[in-house]
C-alpha cells in the first residue's frame, strides 16, 4: 500500500481509504456491527489506515461502530462529517431526500463533541461539512470556526464533502478558487470527470495565486446542483493529472464513487437490475446502457496493463497528485483485496491518461441511449 502526505500535517494517508457508509447506512445491504467491524479490520490488515465516516451515517452508527477498532488501532486516521441535524430529526426521509441541515458555528462545535464521544477520541484528522450549500461556504464564520477547531487541536484539516449526487459545481469551484479549501471530497472517476476536474483546475490556479475566471459565476449560485458540464471558463487544454502547484502543497481531494457506482468494477450486464432500496436504483437507465459501452472502450488498456477493471479505475485516480485517498464503495473482503492491489502497481502514465482523456472528450464513441426509442421497442 502506498501512502500520501496530508498537507500541513505529518500524517500519511493510504491511497485506498475505507468509507463506513457501505456498512452502516443500509443502502448497500444490512450489516451487523460485528460484520461491519470484520470488514473494516480486513481493510486495516491490507494496509488501509484512513477511515472516512460521518455523524449522519445511521444517526451516529457510522462512528460508534468504529470506536472499538480505534481502541485497538490508535494510529488510524479518521475523517468525519457534520451538518445534518438528526438530533432533532431522527427519522430519515424516504429515498435519498436529505435531513434538515444546521451548519452554524454553535452546531459545528456541538456536532464535533458528539462525534468525538461516539468515536472515543479527542480529535479527528479531517472534519468536513456534509453536502454544504454555497451560502454556507460563503460565510467567513464557517471557515473561522473550522480554523479555530484546528488551532485547538480537535481537527487537523477540513473542507467540504460535496453531494449527495454528482454536480455541486458552484460549491466546488468556490471552495477551491476562493477559500483554497484544504480538502474537498467529491465524486470523480474516469467515466464521470466533470465537474471534478474543474474543481482541480480552480485549486491549481488558486495555489498559484491566480484568480479563476469561473469564480464570479459560482458566487451567484444559479446552476442546478446536478449540473456537471464544465463552465464556459474551463480551460480545455487543462489536464487534471498535471498539477505541479498542488503537488507541492495546497488543496487536496478525497474521491468517492470511484467506480461510477460499480460500473467500473465490470460486474454489470444489460440485464442488471437493482432493488428499489439500493442507491443505484436512482441512476437512470442511460447510465447502465451507455456505461457498459464506455467500459468496453477501456478493455484494450486494461488488458495491456494486466489488471482488473476496478484496479484500472484506481490507477487512473492515483495518477493525480492532488488526490490524497480514494474511497470506493467497499462491502466485502474480496473487494478489499482487489482494490488494494492497485496500490502495488504503477499508476497510469501520461500517455495512458491522455488515451482515456481523449475517450472522454469523444464520450467514448458510444451510441446514446434514447428512452423514447426503448419504450417504443418494448
Helix content: 25-40%
Q: In whole angstroms, how far apart are the ends?
A: 48 Å
| Main pleated-sheet profile | 5 strands, parallel
Report the average pLDDT across residues. Answer: 93
- CATH homologous superfamily identity: NADP-dependent oxidoreductase domain
List its traits.
single chain, 5-stranded parallel beta sheet, 17 helices
Q: What does this 3D model show about the protein?
A:
The chain is of the alpha/beta class and 378 residues long. Helices cover 39% and strands 11% of the residues. The protein has one domain: NADP-dependent oxidoreductase domain (TIM Barrel), CATH 3.20.20.100. The longest helix has 15 residues, at 105-119.
Task: Set out the fold topology.
Blueprint: E1 3-5, E2 12-14, E3 18-19, H1 21-24, H2 33-45, E4 50-52, H3 61-64, H4 67-72, E5 77-82, H5 105-119, E6 124-129, H6 134-137, H7 140-151, E7 155-158, H8 169-177, E8 183-187, H9 196-207, H10 215-220, H11 244-248, E9 252-256, H12 285-297, H13 299-305, H14 309-318, E10 323-327, H15 333-340, H16 350-361, H17 371-377
Summarize the structure.
With 378 residues, this protein is an alpha/beta fold.
